[in-house]
What we know:
Helix content is 33%, strand content 42%. The protein is of the alpha+beta class.
Amino acid sequence: MDTSTVGDERLRTQIDRFVAAYNAQDFAALGELLGPQARYQHHGQQFSAGDKQELLALMEQIAAGFPDRRFAEVRRVLPSGSHVVLEAVWTGTAAADMPGFASAGDVARLECCGIFAFDGEQIVAWDDFG
């Protein structure tokens, strides 16, 4: 049996769980998927978090600013080794003016490519581009 395929499918399942929890704003489930030192960097929007608690707080802050935010379209999930590349379209309606990004009521849309690093089944790093 090719164990790299089994690993790839395991990580694909974890990303599917991540997207579902993100879209449902299920922060408890997101917390279970993140390692304690999970770091995040959004290279296009300059958001960052240095650990799991900062990342969860950032996700809650973004959800408050874009209450219907979600990965509206998952285009590709490409697992390889301990990493997964997620190509997706993120959308959300701005609850208030977000200078330089969206005005209140506008639907923001980002075509994103996220690179997730895993330690076992937990996400330990997420670099987002888009």
